[in-house]
Design goal:
The complex is a heterodimer of chains A (347) and B (141). By secondary structure, chain A is mainly beta. Chain A is built from one helix and 17 strands. Chain A has a 16-stranded antiparallel beta barrel. In chain A, a hairpin with a 4-residue loop joins strand 4 and strand 5. Chain B is α/β, with parallel strands linked by helices. Chain B is built from five helices and five strands; from the N terminus they run αβαβααβαββ. Chains A and B meet through strand 1, strand 2 and strand 4 of A and helix 4 of B.
Chain lengths: 347, 141
């Protein structure tokens, strides 16, 4: 994931600034989340957060450039620097887009993998209420894939529908427990269907890939298959937001553990400035092969937080999370509290 | 000849719109725009980027007012059904997923009227008291 792109980053910015006067349609947008968190004990696992003030977990900067190249072609690039990756710049989006018709859009390049409801804007903290999406469910150590995809949007009566399919490949390091492990995912494909009817939405998703990770002994003879499935229900009337998201991962490889993880969240907008929210999240690993005992993690957590919209594009968030780790790496786990604060901006 | 008729018709329409009430907000298009009237749902979809065309099939380009415009918050609450911060959050999701960009914002109603009077694809909203023959009213609230 740590593609060094600093010279490119500078070059792209330079081009964007240089030609902005000539082409009014170039859009430069950005987002910043800056956070600090601390845990009541080092014995619980929540990213890189420990008993001391931890800044890198929730600090992320992103710059996005998009430009219509013609009536039907456009390009989009999003460069993200994450505290968890020592602010190395990484391209999360880098794609060419072709509007084949009003309903159908084709894209090729680097895309976000649409595993989760919040995947597409995973790092744009301003777009959700949490300081960070619950790590029990949002547990996949990478978020982009090099792929081609097609998105078809259509209104079926009162129902707004969107269908996305993609096929691609991932070949990069994945951060697993602080270690960068090389992974290769081929025949990486998936589909997402989203239906919105007034305040109600539902999202169905399925993904699969052939995995090779020699340092973990995965796919040393033949690639081993993995599957991901998910369903989410969303209610959003502007003042009340409820999201329930259930996901499951099934691996052929013994070195990777199958699991089920889900969350239920409710947020209430009190007025134009204050929103309060509560969340329950649960992760349950399933041992389906011998030799997986030491890999099993089971935990549930409760999150309560408040979001204060200081300006129309600046939000301050405070959050308390109680982690109850029933099993950690096959042994009895601990429980503890994580306190987090963040400021999120977009421009 | 047709052009003159259209212009005359739009003058009548816009004068009618202007005379309803000075406190009203008018949604305006170019006098040559073929759509006689638009419903709030159509306008909402155009301003949220969900629809890029007018009902007659021609391209639609929404023009928004600045964040501090008093007409804007009324327009967003009444027609779009969202508060200004909800609209910001909506567009931050669209923008950072490459699904679209928010409408261009201009500082005043006069600026909106000028742009709309120059381009048949545009649609904007202004205080009804600012309406004149250079634009056509398709919705008021």
């Amino acid at each position: 994931m740590k593609t060094k792109l600093t010279p490119l980053f500078a070059a792209v910015l330079g081009v964007a600034c240089g030609s902005a006067q000539a082409h009014m349609d170039i859009n430069v947008n950005g987002f910043l989340s800056a956070g600090v968190a601390t845990a009541s004990t080092d014995e619980i696992a929540e990213g890189i957060i420990d008993e001391d003030a931890t800044f890198k977990e929730d600090t992320t900067l992103g710059i996005q450039i998009s430009a219509p190249v013609s009536d039907r072609f456009s390009l989009t690039g999003q460069l993200v620097a994450r505290g968890t990756e020592d602010y190395d710049v990484d391209a999360s989006w880098a794609y060419a887009s072709f509007e084949a018709s009003d309903e159908l859009t084709l894209r090729i390049g680097r895309l976000r993998v649409p595993f989760f409801y919040y995947s597409d804007f995973l790092e744009v903290g301003f777009a959700y209420n949490w300081v960070r999406p619950p790590t029990e469910v949002y547990r996949i150590g990478f978020s982009s894939v090099d792929a081609i995809d097609a998105t078809y949007n259509i209104e079926l009566g009162d129902i707004e529908s969107s269908f996305q399919v993609y096929y691609g490949r991932f070949d990069d390091d994945v951060n697993i427990g602080g270690n960068e492990i090389p992974f290769e995912l081929t025949n990486f494909a998936g589909a997402v269907a989203t239906f919105t009817w007034n305040e109600f939405s539902t999202r169905l998703t399925y993904h699969q890939a052939d995995i090779e990770a020699p340092t973990l002994g995965i796919g040393t003879d033949d690639p081993e298959e993995s599957w991901f499935g998910g369903i989410a229900f969303i209610y959003d009337d502007g003042d009340n937001l409820a999201v329930a998201e259930w996901t499951t991962i099934d691996h052929e490889a013994v070195a990777l553990v199958d699991d089920v993880a889900w969350l239920a969240m409710y947020a209430r907008r009190l007025n134009d400035q204050f929103t309060v929210h509560v969340t329950y999240a649960n992760e349950d690993d399933a041992q389906d092969e011998t030799g997986q005992d030491a890999l099993i993690n089971d935990q549930e957590s409760y999150i309560g937080g408040v979001r204060y919209d200081i300006e129309s594009n600046v939000a301050l968030k405070l959050e308390v999370k109680y982690n109850d780790e029933k099993t950690r790496n096959g042994a009895d786990g601990e429980d503890g509290i994580i306190y987090s604060a963040a400021v999120d901006m977009v421009f | 000849m047709l052009k003159k008729t259209l212009l005359a018709m739009s003058l009548v329409t816009s004068l009618a719109g202007a005379s309803l009430s000075a406190a009203e907000t008018a949604v305006i298009v170019h006098p040559n725009n073929g759509n006689a009237a638009l419903d709030s749902d159509t306008i909402k979809k155009i301003f949220l980027g969900k629809s890029k065309k007018f009902p007659d099939g021609n391209e639609a380009i929404p023009i928004d007012q600045g964040d501090d415009s008093p007409v804007r918050s009324g327009f967003l609450e009444s027609v779009v059904g969202k508060s200004p911060s909800q609209v910001k959050s909506y567009w931050s999701k669209r923008v950072f997923t490459g699904k679209g960009t928010p409408p261009k914002q201009v500082p005043s109603g006069a600026e909106v009227k000028k742009l709309v009077s120059e381009n048949p694809a545009t649609i904007g909203y202004i205080d009804a008291s600012e309406v004149d023959g250079s634009v056509k009213v398709v919705f008021t609230f």
